[in-house]
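Quick illustration, no need to memorize.
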Amino acid sequence: MMEKIKQELEKGGAVVLPTETVYGLFAKALDEKAVDHVYQLKRRPRDKALNLNVASLADILNFSKNQPPYLQQLVEKFLPGPLTIILKANDKVPDWVNSDLTTVGFRMPNYPVTLELIREFGPLIGPSANISGQASGVTFKEILKDFDQEVLGVEDDAYLTGQDSTILDLSGSKARILRQGAVTKEDILAKIPVIPFEEV
């Protein structure tokens, strides 16, 4: 099955892979046709940007700019894991990924097979494996039904928590949590107390 999944990614297709939260619909981020295919499958609005799924701090640095001084600590303490980090995008991030925004989100999913594929194929997009606007897919059978077709992927329902990742915006002078997920502000400050959070 892994060989078929790799072949599908290589030719610009999309595959369903687990993360530590929900299933994602993964495809090569730097391949415009592959990204278009995911937008069509999900029926996702084109102005809704996608994250880059990466495998290392070096990958994050390669596609971002104006990084805060505590970024390395944050990556070492929380990634791979259920945390999405938003940074200023540099000119290596294609418009079809971040929808002409000045920022881009980074995700490092904590699932061995998924990380291995990211390392092999470079950055992947991996939005939740569901039709846009519907609940995130947490069982492989639900996902097959959603897309009304045979989707290649790795089935491992037991691994998923079903809870979305926390989205942490570091693109401004102060950190902001845009979506509360598994990682809390308190979790972050307990390990890296120097991070300045915006008052709410």
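The two ends are 48 Å apart (CA to CA).
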